Amino acid sequence: MSASAPAVNSVTLVGHLTADPVLKQLADDRKVCALRLAVNDQKGQPPLYIDVATFGSQAEACANYLAKGRAVAVTGRLVYREWEDDSGNRRSRHHVIGRVQFGGRNDDSPSTEEDDPGEEAA
C-alpha cells in the first residue's frame, strides 16, 4: 500500500448478544449503550467476544429493545484504549463504536411493532 493511500477504519460484525445491554448517561448528558457480541466466524472454533458501544437515541433503543441472545449486526470503527487500573497495572482493549441493526429474535414471543422499532433503531 502506498503512503498516499487513505487509511480506512471500518468494521462490520454479525453475532449474538452475550448479555443484556447496559445504558449509561455520560457527564455531558449523552447516553451510551454497552453491548457484548459473540461472533462465530468458523465452525468448530470458539467465538470471538467483542465489546460494542453506541450513542444517543440508538443507545436508548438498544437498551429498550435488545436482550441477551438477540442477533445484531454492527457497523462502525475499531477503537483502542489504554489505561492504568487501581492496582497500577497497565490495561488495554479494542472495542467497536458503531450503529446497531437489530436481527431476529431468539425466543418464541410474537413480535409487534410496539415491541420492536424495526430492523434499525433511530
Describe the structure concisely.
By secondary structure, the protein is mainly beta. Helices cover 8% and strands 45% of the residues. A hairpin with a 5-residue loop joins strand 2 and strand 3.
Could you describe the 3D structure shown?
The protein has 122 residues and is mostly beta strands. The protein has one domain (11-102): Beta Barrel (OB fold (Dihydrolipoamide Acetyltransferase, E2P)), CATH 2.40.50.140. 8% of the residues lie in helices and 45% in strands. The chain contains 1 helix and 6 strands; from the N terminus they run ββββαββ. It has a 5-stranded mixed beta barrel with strand order 1-3-4-6-5. Strand 5 (71-84) and strand 6 (90-102) form a beta hairpin. The termini are far apart. The relative contact order is 0.22. Mean pLDDT is 85; it is low at 108-122.
Structural class category:
mainly beta
Q: Largest beta sheet, briefly?
A: 5 strands, mixed, barrel
How many structural domains in the coordinates? 1
Q: What is the H/E order?
A: EEEEHEE
CATH H level: which superfamily? Nucleic acid-binding proteins
Beta-strand residue percentage: over 45%
The overall strand count is 6
Instruction: Name the CATH class.
Output: Mainly Beta
Strand order of the largest sheet: 1-3-4-6-5
CA radius of gyration: 16 Å
Terminal Cα separation, in Å? 37 Å
Specify the CATH architecture: Beta Barrel
CATH topology: OB fold (Dihydrolipoamide Acetyltransferase, E2P)
Are there runs of 5+ residues with pLDDT below 50, and where?
108-122
**How much helix is in the residues?**
under 10%
Shape: globular
What is the average per-residue confidence, as pLDDT, rounded to a whole number?
Answer: 85
Helix count, DSSP H or I runs of 4 or more residues: 1
